[in-house]
């Protein structure tokens, strides 16, 4: 199973379209995860045209998005449990800490979160933490980014994909 994970797209404020490299990956995805801050529902509808979507709302999402989504969810995909949260609410000083606390005491195999726009892929005991960053609003980061999660019966492999300002793949970081 191939899952494309993204967050913090902020449409249409930051960009009016997704980078071409990302849309090519979305066309090949079995499932899509969005960890909030769509801003408007049009992007949610676009993502649903590519593959099934599991998503949560973020702190800047408009009411039409919040009416359609929850603040956090846990889904079962490809033999794994994935927790999804934006990361702006809850206990903890950092976005990563808030994301972890959201799912305590029974952490899922993967937690996908956003909010900070800082790409992260880190193993914490039996849980992989993924912040896909943003494919459209990198803020102070060097690259735009998103993540790919691949699973089969025996393994889970995660990849952070880094894109330049033109939406071209610069490099990948694997877990």
TrEMBL record:
Belongs to the metallophosphoesterase superfamily. YfcE family. Pfam families: Metallophos_2. Residues 1-151 form the Calcineurin-like phosphoesterase domain. Gene3D superfamilies: 3.60.21.10. Its cofactor is a divalent metal cation. InterPro entries: Calcineurin-like_PHP_lpxH (IPR024654), Metallo-depent_PP-like (IPR029052), Phosphodiesterase_MJ0936/Vps29 (IPR000979). This is Phosphoesterase. It comes from Fictibacillus iocasae. The keyword Metal-binding applies. It comes from the Bacteria. Its EC number is 3.1.4.-. The keyword Acetylation does not apply. Keywords: Metal-binding.
